[in-house]
Amino acid sequence: MQAANADQAEIDKFEADAHQWWNPDGPYAPLHAINPLRCRYVLEQTGGLAGKTVLDVGCGGGLLTEAMAAEQARVTGIDLATDSLAVARAHAADGQLTIDYQAISAEALAETSAGQWDVVTCMEMLEHVPDPASVVDACARLVRPGGSVFFSTINRTTRAWLLAVVAAERLLRVLPRGTHDASAFIRPAELSRWCRAAGLRVADLTGLHYNPITGAHTLGADTRVNYLCHAIKGHPE
């Protein structure tokens, strides 16, 4: 049996604060702040999610998962952090949202359910696993031909280290210290290469920006820190 592509220490970090997933002022406050932008990006790039099957890989407590379900998508969320999944299930039930949450890795699910989803999202996860290229490949197998895969991660630049680690974790303390390992950040060229190898065509790369003075998050062309990637399965004729 293939070992799960997971770092238990990383899972434990998220499990320690699982009860705080839906606290907008807690350790996941930055995810609450960017969640509307992430969802809007997926909606704009796909032309809407109503009636589509969507898989959220590394769903955590369900922030993006619920936002996409609210757009009338049929959503499945997967994660290996069982406490986070318990929080996600309870919150969805409170909101009367029908979401299928499963404790399984993307690679394992791809073995049994390839090509089952119109859209696959994998946000803020790649930098937390030992083999991110394996997750990219699994996402490509899970989406149907012509379907969309979305990733978001952090660029491996000095600017990203200064903002995501030094500023966010050590100075401003908007993230728990140790949330990120800068050596695991991923350059857009690397992600694009993994996408091509998995049969995905990168359709868009967009930066996600944070203004520490105003506290505003915006989307734009600069991908030097956080960025989003939209890829499509299969190549144009």
UniProtKB/TrEMBL annotation:
Binding site for S-adenosyl-L-methionine: 38, 58, 79, 123
Family recorded in the similarity comment: Belongs to the methyltransferase superfamily. UbiG/COQ3 family.
Alphabetical list of Gene3D superfamilies matching this protein: Vaccinia Virus protein VP39 (3.40.50.150)
Listed name of the protein: Ubiquinone biosynthesis O-methyltransferase
The protein's Enzyme Commission number: 2.1.1.222, 2.1.1.64
Pathway in which this enzyme or protein is active: Cofactor biosynthesis; ubiquinone biosynthesis
Cited function: O-methyltransferase that catalyzes the 2 O-methylation steps in the ubiquinone biosynthetic pathway.
SUPFAM superfamilies in alphabetical order: S-adenosyl-L-methionine-dependent methyltransferases
Broadest EC class assigned to this enzyme: transferase
GO terms, biological process: methylation
GO molecular function: 2-polyprenyl-6-hydroxyphenol methylase activity; 3-demethylubiquinol 3-O-methyltransferase activity
Reactions this protein catalyses: a 3-(all-trans-polyprenyl)benzene-1,2-diol + S-adenosyl-L-methionine = a 2-methoxy-6-(all-trans-polyprenyl)phenol + S-adenosyl-L-homocysteine + H(+); a 3-demethylubiquinol + S-adenosyl-L-methionine = a ubiquinol + S-adenosyl-L-homocysteine + H(+)
NCBIfam families referenced in this protein's UniProt entry, alphabetically: UbiG
CDD domains per UniProt: AdoMet_MTases (cd02440)
Alphabetized UniProt keyword annotations: Methyltransferase, S-adenosyl-L-methionine, Transferase, Ubiquinone biosynthesis
